[in-house]
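Researcher: Here's my situation. A collaborator sent me these components and asked whether they could plausibly form a single complex. I don't have experimental data yet, so a predicted model of the whole assembly would be a useful starting point for our discussion.
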Amino acid sequence: QQQVKQSPQSLIVQKGGIPIINCAYENTAFDYFPWYQQFPGKGPALLIAIRPDVSEKKEGRFTISFNKSAKQFSLHIMDSQPGDSATYFCAADSNYQLIWGAGTKLIIKP
Amino acid sequence: KAGVTQTPRYLIKTRGQQVTLSCSPISGHRSVSWYQQTPGQGLQFLFEYFSETQRNKGNFPGRFSGRQFSNSRSEMNVSTLELGDSALYLCASSLGTLGMNTEAFFGQGTRLTVV
């Protein structure tokens, strides 16, 4: 019940394409869903986050879609660029801990 | 504003030895959490400290321990090192405790290699 399942494990997309990373959870107590981006040699950094009372949130080229009934949320990257190549982690936050997805290694080909 | 600082950046130890890693959080942040990152396992939560108290602990053996000082700096200790402990150890600091919808700021990590 405490898991967050993230897919795919890796993804290769051509420049300009729209990579989509999906996450699913079971625990309805989760009330905050952040996405973190990690570049090689760096620690993860917060990219965008959403609360379950909102179905979509956009920040620049990054969009989170949230489906509360299905207990799923996803990250979309519009007009993807080679500089977006990184590992992406979804997470789910309850009132006492942060649960992480396994990560998706994204490669954007020029 | 200085970020999260982890020292050392790289470390090579021999099996059976012990190691201490250090993390200085962002000024004003009272929560420090530790993670182990390996290529196949993603981010594995070790423990979180808030105001010098261990608030939560992941599923790691007792060889992994930590502490937090009154200035919020934290140390993580691993005793009797095993080859499988080779990993990137990440520290994150946040203003509030994890689980309070608060952003976690990560350091660059300490790369530990056990030979």
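Model: Some features of this prediction you could bring to your collaborator: The mean pLDDT of chain A is 93. Chain A touches chain B at residues 31-32, 34, 36, 41-46, 49, 51, 89, 93-98, 100-103 (CB under 8 Å).
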